[in-house]
Design a protein that fits this description.
about 250 residues, alpha/beta, Alpha-Beta Plaits, Rossmann fold, 7-stranded mixed beta sheet, 9 helices, about 35% helix
Length: about 250
């Protein structure tokens, strides 16, 4: 809850622990009365994260904080899911390979075999899990098995063209993000570029968001747009949009 003295207490504590703050961002949400803060710090006296987190408990209790500590040297384990549009997958693999995306891609899951060779050539496990209306519960159970076995903390739907069940969305709440090829909340569902073309819009975009049981309604993480004109076709929109999708998804991750 928002109150006076939170930033002062945190910065004073970290300084006393021999830590140097290298980045800090905070936001006071007037609508909810909640205060949010993200702090990056380095221990300059060799004090471990376990001790820093343990001794922070008194401050957390005093301010009724929800808090998490993360070691930035430990990369988040991520599973990518893709269908037959590979532009986001290829972009993420390239960023990961050159070190521009600080994650560990522990598996790629697809309901098609189109990108098996690409993934295997990156020395990443590839799992083919076909999905039909009849086998969807079995397929999702297999996906969850792969996620659990890999130790993945995050699932990224990199143009995975399947609607996840309510049960899976609930079980994995907060751990699945999606790239939607539209500037939400406009043009939800299928064929958003066709919808945008028919409406004559002058800006198209993409949205990275958390996946919830409500289709394309999850909290938005990142967005961007590109300008289009009436002289372009719906196919042109798709081509332009792919670049925006790849960039937005990478930033969202």
């Amino acid at each position: 809850p928002s109150t006076r003295g939170i930033i002062a207490a945190i910065s004073t504590y970290l300084a006393a622990k021999g830590c140097n703050i290298t980045d800090s961002a905070q936001f006071d949400d007037l609508g909810t009365g909640q205060f949010f803060m993200r702090v990056v710090f380095a221990s300059e006296q060799g004090i471990g994260l376990d001790e820093i987190e343990r001794d922070f408990a008194e401050i957390a209790e005093r301010f009724a904080m929800q808090r998490q500590f993360h070691d930035m040297a430990q990369r988040m384990k991520v599973v990518l899911m893709v269908s037959r549009f590979g532009h986001c997958l290829n972009d993420l693999l390239y960023r990961w390979r050159i070190g521009a995306l600080p994650i560990d891609i522990v598996a790629v899951i697809s309901n098609h075999l189109d990108y098996q060779k690409v993934v295997v050539n990156h020395d990443i496990p590839f799992h083919h899990v076909p999905v039909t209306a009849a086998n969807k519960p079995v397929a999702e159970a297999r996906i969850l098995e792969i996620v659990e076995a890999s130790g993945a903390e995050l699932i990224v739907l990199a143009r995975y063209m399947q609607v996840l069940s309510d049960a899976m969305c609930t079980r994995m709440s907060g751990r699945i993000i999606n790239i939607h090829h539209s500037f939400l909340p406009s043009f939800k569902g299928a064929n958003p570029y066709k919808q945008a073309f028919e409406r004559g819009v002058k800006l198209i975009g993409a949205t990275a968001h958390y996946v919830t049981a409500d289709l394309d309604e999850g909290p938005i993480i990142e967005q961007d747009v590109a300008r289009v004109t009436h002289a372009q076709s719906a196919a042109d929109y798709v081509s332009i949009g792919r670049d925006v999708e790849a960039q937005v998804l990478a930033r969202g991750i």
